[in-house]
Amino acid sequence: MLSPNPLSLLCALLLCLPLAIFFTxxxxxxxxxxxxxxxxxxxxxxxxxxxxxxxxxxxxxxxxLSSLNIQDDKPHKVTTRVKGRPIKPNQKQLSTLxxxxxxxxxxxxxxxxxxxxxMRVKSKPTRPKKVAFMFLTTKxxxxxxxxxxxxxxxxxSKNLFNIYVHxxxxxxxxxxxxxxxxxxxISSQSTRRFSPTLSAAARRLLAHALVDDMSNSVxxxxxxxxxxxxxxxxxxxxxxxQGKSFVEILANEETAYxxxxxxxxxxxxxxxxxxEFRVGSQFWALTRxxxxxxVSDRVLWSKFxxxxxxxxxxxxxxxxxxxxxxxxxxxxxxxxTLTHVNWTGRVDGHPRTYEAWEVGPELIRRMREDRPRYGxxxxxxxxxxxxxxxxxxxxxxxxxMRIANGVIFRD
Length: 411
Prior knowledge:
Elements: H1 6-27, E1 37-39, H2 64-67, E2 69-71, E3 80-82, E4 85-87, H3 91-101, H4 112-118, E5 130-137, H5 144-151, E6 161-167, H6 197-212, E7 216-222, E8 227-228, H7 232-242, E9 245-246, H8 256-260, E10 285-287, H9 288-296, H10 299-304, H11 320-328, E11 333-334, E12 339-340, H12 361-369, E13 388-389, H13 397-402, H14 404-408
Parallel strand pairs: 5-6, 5-7, 9-11, 12-13
Antiparallel strand pairs: 1-2, 3-4, 7-10, 8-13
């Protein structure tokens, strides 16, 4: 075999040169984009303290990009193509490109400043600890007089709670919020079923309650059709002595796949796999640490905030909170709701509504004797009492008021 001499090697290089030029020229037309990673901690460290004044008006907007921690290993080469030619966008075009590529909850919106403040509050409440009652409604509260009596049972009861109301601004409120509900309506946005807006409203309530009072220790979501089943003092001690959140967390439900795939068969991946997806009640009681986790979340929320393509199985308000807490801190949760509801014979997505003629001491007694369904099917010896109940028709107010002091508030 002949050994290659310098002349033969030179000839071989000259023969390969056109091919190398061809491939080099072809690759210059390929746009290259270095992915941008948005590092948003979830949850935030516990030792972060709030810097903003919690009593100021949180209506100013903070620049979105400056609030994100964007880290890169090397400079970005963001290019695009116009009529086959690669071009480099200017700074304004680049900002527009970055913003348009973000999921909707990461774009700048009126809640940005509020959530930025809420995610920096301390996770340990100050004393005296309070319960934040958060009413999510689209109409005047039909049982406001009953709740008024509930909150005013004793002169010292005002040291035990705070009230927050998320009232859909697209509805007319002919009867204003008065009494204990005066000046307790937060900055709200429209809500509707089969969309993320109900979950967004609950997150907005949590953010307001976290920033408003550092004493808020437990955060309870209340429906306008909901009533208390015990006195405020009884409710307060049940919620505060546990040190855990009460959120229904159900695995292996028949409707789990349809709900998981409501935004598309792969829309939840890779953040939420089907085996991690959970179903539960819309109404829960969260500890301050978990409330702070919810308002700090951007990763899972970007998935649940996406619009659904199947509306018959789109219930993010019943899936987001159970899934988030199940994935991040299942040991910190009691997998049950403390709001009694009757689904017997219901197939339309609404629980049974109790009419005025059904209201009496016997109904309250039966609801008190019932016990929650625990998500794993094993209560581990727990026997937690229901503290609230729904749904009641508006005309049930008068019979409820007649038994309030003698039955409902008597423990």
